[in-house]
Amino acid sequence: MSALLRVSGLEVVYGSVPAVAGVGLEIPAGEIRAILGANGAGKSSTIKAILGLLRPRAGAIEFEGRPIHGLPTHRIHQLGIAWVPEGRQLFSTLTVHENLEMGAFARGGAGLPAKLDEVFALFPRLRERRTQVAGSLSGGEQQMLAIARALMAEPKLLLMDEPSLGLAPKVVQRLFEQIQEINARGLSILMVEQNARQALRIAHYAYLLEVGRLAGEGPPAALAASERVQRVYLGG
Questions:
Q1: Closest CA to 163 of 150, 137, 144, 182
Q2: pLDDT for 165-213, tens place per residue?
Q3: Claim: this prediction has a pTM higher than 0.90
Q4: CA–CA separation, 60 vs 68, rounded Å?
Q5: Domains of the chain by range and CATH?
Q6: Which residue among 44, 84, 180, 188 is least crowded, i.e. fewest CB within 10 A of its CB?
Q7: pLDDT digits over 111-159, tens only?
């Protein structure tokens, strides 16, 4: 299966401090892949390099077979990569509807009513809250809105940075079910997640980062069977 996204030999530094060292990964079309690891492992730095928010010191990033490292972030977005950032980063003083309109801005707002119906079908609570200011939503509702806003751009690949962060366990469970629903509609997903148990439950394949380096990879069952993963990430 050909890769939708391919990252090879990625190196990212902050000043002279290495954050990512020689990481490689692939995202085939139609799959959910997860990057696991503790704080400071280089997970978010990898995502930001893919998005063009950080300039890699070395390595290559290809999307649909063409190099994208060096492209500005807005151009990468226009090619079909959308981002659900850590902490959601909504327009807190705008309504739910206005936030969703902003998500469709990159494609000129074409087909807005149909796309709104699609995301409201996936997240019915947002339809109920469409005139409510985003900053007044619950944490779970804000995460729904952050995902829905990214979907409004009709991406081919969705990057998600810590989607479960700060959410109650019941909300997290439903959120991951919704991520599976999104993937079942054909959207490829690369997800950075500290909640290894939930991520391994829905991912087709996973990568483990430790101190900026790839420490393991494989199908979820194989990775979860690792003694180290069980002890450090699954509480076993």
A1: 144
A2: 888 999 999 999 999 999 999 999 999 988 888 999 999 999 999 999 9
A3: yes
A4: 8
A5: 1-80+193-236 (3.40.50.300)
A6: 180
A7: 788 999 999 999 999 999 999 999 999 999 999 999 999 999 999 999 9
